[in-house]
């Protein structure tokens, strides 16, 4: 069996590959569970069907999909340019820190309707800052952006840890590592009464459509796509590599920061050492599953949100460890990458003698 | 001071194992970001086998085998299917985190006898420094020996020369008849086995118990270490000890007379890696990096 290059990329497989990958993941995951001595039918039900079972579960699914969509659509843009920003978890954390700083330190007497938007802006700035560092280090010194953005993730996590245990610790919190609760004015309003679904949802949808427009209908978007497909051609066309790298790192970093700001002002409502639930890494899968298209990322975010809600349910009902979600996520990315090869190659079965 | 040196040597060992494996893989031109996942799988396999058989030698072998098996999964996707190496490696890390959690579920809170020191304490010289350096288990010295072996292999053997050629110019290597994919596959498997050994050291000697995410980012540090060492196995030894010292300074900060918050001390390995990356890259030493690093190779072109 060998791979043979297609003369043109297969449109069929470009569309089919994510669906095929999801199907393979569910199949292989259930087979694995059966081997581990769990009832596969039960796992299927709890893990993949229960997140859709009732209105409240569906609203929770959306709550998880919001940060994934915000980060994933930004990453889609960066990956399109061939810039591998895997530091989204750190940019998310910085966004949360900046937004939290605004929420905590604007005196209550002055707080108004503008406080929440200010938190969002602060979050974007925090994420942009953390995305700009790897960009500038790659441009000026040639330092690998994968490693730099990743190292900064750990720095951000430690910074948050220090803040909530030290200077930003809640004086009334009996020593727990958390900040005071955010004031009412800094909290994201609820969209659907009786659920936790908040205004981050329309925000994520607007962001995804805006990015899609920029990517396919502006000169800047064209330069991003060209740089990813043919770096040399982009150079000859006069697109500055440095500008494109900086731009995609600022956009993807800023959106990860926005996701962090949205998350701490909606579901968490304070700062604490653990705020991310691994959204930053999962969003990488979201970007790939969404075909590196911002609107695709929106749909893919819902698919990945299933692994979170399903994982929580499985933890309670099947006594599976929380990390099992990552098992499904990792398998999904593996299958997706393998299936994507079929967009450009066809599998040929042939004997050695014929080769 | 002596307890610090003792702890530093212990903390450097898993880093050294994992980084040596990654170094060989990267020298063949493959960037495997799955180190963290392979270490976790190695750690859980080593612990599970040691716990059920009572033999730490079997456990160590199982750790290496689990790491290699995980690496094979990566190799299948990244080399066999010529997928994006960075994404495939991330998939492996995510997968390894989940799979190790599932496998290790029944072992949380259990413990095994830690690896014994090579030289029993009563036979060691009285000098505290000598005790801090010589009082370790076999894996500590095994890691150092492995570094020397890798150094010798890469620089002084035919096969090592071929490996470097493949990492620097796969097309030419293929043209003169070298088996590019086969060599890369082998290098990646070796890398996985080494990461598995690093994980095994964590769960058999360092703690010795199993806990979810017990590698706590060491796989990523190991990746950084390879860059920090400029892809040289001997410099890797130095780097591993330096990084271990930096990561420990958060626990020994007060004893050493440092009065900054522990979180800032814990940041130092990450910041040091960034600085090292910038310095190495800016100094034009990028030639030290394998030229083909991260680029897939398709034999039919």
Please, what is the average pLDDT of chain A?
90
| Secondary-structure element string of chain A | EHHHHHHHHHHHHHE
Q: What number is the mean pLDDT of chain B?
A: 89
CATH architecture of the largest domain in chain A: Orthogonal Bundle
Write out the strand line-up for the largest beta sheet of chain A, numbering strands in chain order: 1-2
Query: Can you tell me the CATH class of chain B?
Result: Mainly Alpha
N-to-C order of helices and strands of chain B: HHHHHHHHHHHH
Integer count of domains of chain A: 2
Structural class estimated from helices and strands of chain A: mainly alpha
* Approximate strand percentage of chain B: under 5%
What general outline of chain B do the C-alpha atoms trace?
globular
Shape of chain A: globular
Q: Could you state the oligomeric state of the chains shown? A: heterodimer
Q: State the distance separating the first and last CA atoms of chain A.
A: 10 Å
Quick structural gist:
The complex is a heterodimer of chains A (355) and B (301). With 355 residues, chain A is mostly helical. Chain A has helices at residues 11-35, 40-49, 55-80, 88-105, 115-141, 145-165, 200-217, 219-229, 231-236, 241-268, 279-289, 294-317, 324-344, and strands at 2-5, 345-348.
Characterize the structure shown.
- The complex is a heterodimer of chains A (355) and B (301).
- Chain A has 355 residues and is mostly helical.
- Chain A folds into 2 domains: 1-38 and 335-355, no CATH class; 49-319, Orthogonal Bundle (ABC transporter involved in vitamin B12 uptake, BtuC), CATH 1.10.3470.
- In chain A, 69% of the residues lie in helices and 2% in strands.
- Chain A is built from 13 helices and 2 strands; from the N terminus they run E-H-H-H-H-H-H-H-H-H-H-H-H-H-E.
- Chain A has helices at residues 11-35, 40-49, 55-80, 88-105, 115-141, 145-165, 200-217, 219-229, 231-236, 241-268, 279-289, 294-317, 324-344, and strands at residues 2-5, 345-348.
- In chain A, helix 7 (200-217) crosses helix 8 (219-229).
- Chain B is mainly α and 301 residues long.
- Chain B has one domain: Orthogonal Bundle (ABC transporter involved in vitamin B12 uptake, BtuC).
- In chain B, helix 2 crosses helix 10 (218-228) and helix 10 crosses helix 11 (233-252).
- The longest helix of chain B is centred in the middle third of the chain and has 27 residues, at 180-206.
- Chain B is globular and about 60 Å long.
- At the A-B interface, strand 1, helix 5, helix 6, helix 11 and helix 13 of A face helix 3, helix 4, helix 10 and helix 12 of B.
